[in-house]
Amino acid sequence: MALWTLHGNGRTVEPGAVVGPAERLNWPATIAMGVQHVVAMFGATFLVPTITGFPVSTTLLFSGLGTLLFLLITKNRLPSYLGSSFAFIAPVTAATASAGMGSALAGIVAVGVLLAIVGFVVQFVGVQWVDRFMPPVVAGAIVALIGFNLAPVAWDSFSAAPLTATVTLAVVILFAVLFKGFLGRISIFLGVIVGYVFAAIIGELDFSAVGEAAWIGLPTFHVPDFASAGTWSAIGMFLPVVLVLVAENVGHVRGVATMTDASVNQHTGRALIADGAATTLAGLGGGSGTTTYGENIGVMAATRVYSTAVYWVAGLAAILLAFSPKIGAVFNSIPAGVLGGVTTALYGLIGIIGIKIWVDNRVDFSRPVNQYTAAVALVIGIAGFTMKIEGFEFGGIVLGTVAALVIYHVGNLIARARKTGADDGGPIPAVGQLGGDPQD
């Protein structure tokens, strides 16, 4: 494993320079930045187990362990924090309700194993086949339908305490547009804090469990259940998540490569293997599935520090936090109204990320194949279509994903054979600036 060399004087980063993965600042600065990464990941990572009913402390433990495992598998050359993936919320919620937590954990393990297999293929074959199998219109549709499929879950929590939910949602939006840089990126976390305080003021907060919880103790562990009859039906709901994790990891590697060194792209396969291994480990012990975190990419971009030493500090800090039941009790005390306000924004943002994939890749929606790929997939996901086949029940995410893939690939095959012009003709030509800050 590579050792870190000291960057410059160890205290500052020169204008235009970055601290590469194999470099580090002095240890006080490195530790401080590691703690900053914990703060950045915390808001999103704790929300997933809180929403799905998983133990928060256990999720934090496997988040930290997964990060260290990721660094080891990628040979300490790819900076990344592995936090809870929101793509798991819908299948975990459905599987837990229908077959129990053990079946949900089995689904997480299945995703991890399959993701690792994809990683091995990418490592030896290359990542180009992923782009062909899941082009932007398909990838965007899958990500969008996962977010929009969760809309009823957000409403259930929102309607439990509409006033608190509205205040929380308003604060999330306000902080996102009010603050610059890091504070703006953690607006959801700040919204939870304000909503929590508001709920306490109006008497919606039950803090009794927090007072009874110990400061130090072991997390609660659970094991996957592969024996129950409903498990294998539940696993089917998880398979589309693999496509999301592939897209997230590939995007993460490309982002780091753009900021540091193009050779980082060589580690794409290892990144997928590492996230697959971390997700499998989490599922085996009762934690949430993991993914590379955009929040932490934002911190790296802002600080220009891409040192993997920082992530070793962050992973170890998360593990230490996991051994405090009192911290877990605090998160479990978050009222339904606060979660309702946050998830209304959060689930919608997941959907918008899918739409952003279309925009960034200039998907041509004048082509019928692209139109129907997105349209049918979204309606299936939003409406929550279900289908039972020989005892197996498939939900909106699975059916929407299958629809997107079949419509796109079969539709293109037919359109190109018939030369109708209905096929995906590639990105539309850019006219003027696409997004970003206004330019004079």
From TrEMBL:
This is Nitrate reductase. Pfam families: Xan_ur_permease. It is a multi-pass membrane protein. GO terms for cellular component: plasma membrane. Its main location: membrane. It is found in: Cell membrane. One of its GO terms (molecular function) is xanthine transmembrane transporter activity. It comes from Microbacterium stercoris. The keyword Transmembrane applies.
